[in-house]
Amino acid sequence: MVGEGGGAGTRQDRILTADESQLAAGAQRTSFGDRGPQVSSDAPVKLSVQGLTLSYGTKTVLRDVSFEVREKEVFGIIGPANSGKTSFLRALNRMNELVPGMRVDGTIRFNGEDVNSFRNVYALRRRIGVVFPLPVGLPLSVYDNVALSPRLTGVTKKAQLDEIVERCLRRAALWDEVKDRLNALGSLLSGGQQQRLTIARALSQEPELLLLDEFSIAVDPVTTMRIEDVLKELREEMTIVLVTNLVQQARRLAQRTAFFLNGELVEVGETEDFFTGPVLDSRTREYVEGKFG
After folding, report:
1. Does residue 66 fall inside a structural domain?
2. Which of 126, 205, 272, 276 has the smallest number of Cβ neighbours within 10 A?
């Protein structure tokens, strides 16, 4: 599978075939109703995007995107490679400032505040956590990977750090596997464990909004299902924006979904409508059915 900047993506029908066969065991205990109740249109707006256009130099990767994400909603973003999904996530907490030549036009409001109005970008990033597609373990112990952010914010008492580390590892469904080797390097964990460690590290910041960029690329199907179970619990506490190339994953987790294609926001709607209900654009149904991608 190739990410956005990595050339032609895998055909969607092949992705779905692999996804469905690999997750067959987990699917027996997974209901599409598990994505939780529909979020009321009266729910507070957590994230508001208006007229967002993203460019790298002279190349526009996303143009004139507008939609809202509501409080404690799992919001899915689907679309083939090079459709602007990852670039969109980078703009939400100003990671675009780390990418040479990336330009952002339009407005992104988090809790009603323009993200560009935050003088302390690190404070913004603590409130908007990110989990990348490939786990990036810091060259630290398992314990220190999770304790790093609390320490940077002034937490120094060992008892308090111990409580934070255990809580975050439990929330990431990793505690039972690593509780006897907290002092081991995080980079020595398996790929699936490192991905969950990355989630635990993000949770240690107590984010209000959690961004997940194709978290299941580097993990096995069983671990994928375990992380999905974690996300179903976390949605009770925070808002989640989930970018995924696996449309069935969006169907399992997201209450609403946006479909990006060739830098365009094709439509936003209730996730199940993309599969069985009315759609505004025929390309949406064709994509989720694997007719292109």
Report:
1. yes
2. 276
